[in-house]
């Protein structure tokens, strides 16, 4: 081989190209192998443990939703029971996943106002998912799947109420006072309206009738004055026939009689005024006593009604199914350590207004058939139907063990 051909061949070798035996043209090296999904069936079983807490608003039986917040630090105290299982079957790019979980937890809610001393909540939650997956990509570093399916949620919720006796009594008295005050005010308004109607009716009388009545009053007054004048004239005539001493005596008697009559009139007026005032005061006192009796009786009736209407507990069970779509993936940091993620969204107003699910975990592949994961899962559901409200998130630490067959 000539020297002028050695330099180009060396450069080709350094660049990764090689010349086949007996050929003078360079060829590219073969591409790295691509991991193909297995054509055989693969089965996986995961035993997950979810230390789930609960936070959000929950309402049962049409009662006002209460706010509940059972945090991570309270999970051990409030989680009564949890069980879960995930089964997966795969072949080629397609897969099918069944996921089931049961949670039973309890907690205390914020007291809604002065009526209740405390409110507690018991929740039994069943989740069941069926999803189909399609593998978009798979390589040595992991894989990425699309998923679609449905999530069934069944909630058995019980609210426990503990009435506050002082609060019930105070609320009953306030309601009674408001009702009685409104009734008294309405009566006063009706009396005022009746007086106004009476005035209007008097003002609307026929003018001729009023004129005739006025003429009658004038005639009666004139007759009375005439009678008085005639009586005075008779007295004057009588006084003319008596002696001066008798006249003085008669005048004194008349004046004394006038004073007695005036005093009697004043006394009678005072007696009448006193009696009227006494009757008015007595009537007012009786009315106030009647109103107070009505207040107390109504307050007792309201308190009895509240205690009868507000139950010690109320329960409701709701089951619904939400369509979901999302993705899941895995990234291998090494041949042992990896990151697993999943996210989906659903509801879309078909059952829930909205449901969100997010999951992330660090995993360790112990061997070809066994791996473990430690992470966090968040599941939010916004659902309302016939007085049942569940606008809350179930979230907490996740620990899973997966077996591959």
Shape: rod-shaped
Helix proportion: 25-40%
SS-based class: alpha+beta
* Share in β-strands: 35-45%
Topology record:
Blueprint: H1 6-14, E1 42-59, E2 66-70, H2 75-78, E3 79-91, E4 94-109, E5 116-139, E6 142-163, H3 165-203, H4 207-240, H5 244-309, E7 313-332, E8 337-346, E9 354-365, E10 370-385, E11 388-404
Antiparallel strand pairs: 1-2, 1-3, 1-11, 3-4, 4-5, 5-6, 6-7, 7-8, 8-9, 9-10, 10-11
Distinctive features:
single chain; rod-shaped; 11 strands; 405 residues; alpha+beta; ten-stranded antiparallel beta barrel; 5 helices; disordered N terminus
In short:
The protein is of the alpha+beta class and 405 residues long. It has five helices and eleven strands; from the N terminus they run H-E-E-H-E-E-E-E-H-H-H-E-E-E-E-E.
Explain this structure to me?
The structure is a single chain. With 405 residues, the protein is of the alpha+beta class. Helix content is 38%, strand content 43%. The chain has 5 helices and 11 strands, in the order H-E-E-H-E-E-E-E-H-H-H-E-E-E-E-E. The chain has a 10-stranded antiparallel beta barrel. Helix 3 packs across helix 5 (244-309). It is rod-shaped. It starts with 5 loop residues before the first helix and ends with a strand. The model is unreliable at 1-25 (pLDDT under 50).
């Amino acid at each position: 081989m000539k020297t002028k051909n050695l330099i180009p061949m060396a450069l080709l070798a350094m660049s990764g190209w090689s010349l086949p035996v007996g050929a003078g043209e360079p060829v590219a090296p073969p591409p790295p192998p691509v991991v193909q999904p297995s054509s055989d069936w693969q089965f996986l079983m995961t035993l997950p443990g979810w230390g789930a807490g609960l936070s959000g608003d929950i309402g049962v039986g049409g009662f006002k939703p209460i706010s509940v917040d059972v945090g991570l630090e309270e999970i051990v105290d409030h989680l009564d029971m949890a069980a879960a299982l995930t089964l997966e079957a795969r072949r080629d790019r397609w897969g099918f996943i069944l996921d089931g979980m049961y949670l039973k937890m309890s907690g205390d809610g914020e007291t809604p106002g002065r009526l209740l001393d405390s409110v507690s909540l018991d929740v039994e939650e069943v989740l069941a998912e069926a999803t189909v997956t399609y593998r978009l990509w798979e390589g040595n570093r992991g894989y990425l799947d699309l998923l679609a399916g449905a999530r069934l949620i069944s909630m058995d919720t019980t609210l426990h109420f503990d009435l506050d006796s002082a609060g019930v009594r105070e609320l009953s008295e306030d309601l009674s006072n408001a009702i009685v005050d409104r009734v008294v005010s309405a009566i006063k308004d009706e009396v005022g309206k009746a007086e106004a109607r009476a005035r209007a009716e008097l003002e609307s009388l026929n003018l001729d009738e009023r004129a005739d009545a006025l003429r009658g009053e004038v005639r009666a007054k004139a007759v009375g004055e005439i009678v008085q004048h005639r009586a005075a004239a008779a007295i004057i005539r009588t006084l003319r026939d008596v002696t001066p001493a008798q006249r003085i005596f008669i005048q004194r008697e008349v004046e004394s009689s006038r004073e007695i009559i005036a005093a009697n009139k004043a006394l009678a007026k005072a007696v009448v005024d006193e009696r009227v005032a006494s009757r008015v005061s007595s009537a007012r006192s009786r009315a106030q006593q009647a109103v107070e009796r009505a207040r107390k009786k109504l307050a007792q009736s309201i308190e009895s009604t509240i205690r009868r209407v507000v139950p010690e507990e109320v329960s409701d069970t709701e089951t619904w199914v939400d369509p979901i779509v999302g993705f899941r993936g895995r990234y291998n940091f090494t041949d042992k350590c990896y990151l697993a993620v999943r996210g989906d969204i659903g509801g879309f107003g078909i059952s829930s207004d909205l449901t969100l699910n997010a999951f992330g975990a660090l995993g360790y592949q112990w061997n070809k058939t066994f791996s473990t994961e430690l992470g966090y899962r968040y599941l939010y559901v916004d659902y309302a139907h016939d007085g049942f409200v569940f606008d809350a998130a179930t979230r907490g630490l996740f620990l899973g063990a997966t077996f591959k067959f």
